[in-house]
Amino acid sequence: MSRLKLSVLFAAILIPMMGMAQTSPQTPAAQAPAATGPAKIMWMNLEQALLTCDEGKALVAEIQKFVDEKQKQMDSMKDETDRLRNQLQVQGSKLTDEARADMEDQVESKSTSMERFRQDTQKEIENRQTRMNNYLGKRMLPVVERVSKERGISAVLIFNASRDAYVDPSLNLTEEIIKAYNQTYPAGSKAPAAGTPASPKPQPSAPATSAPKK
Question: Is residue 46 scored above 90 in pLDDT?
Answer without folding.
Answer: yes
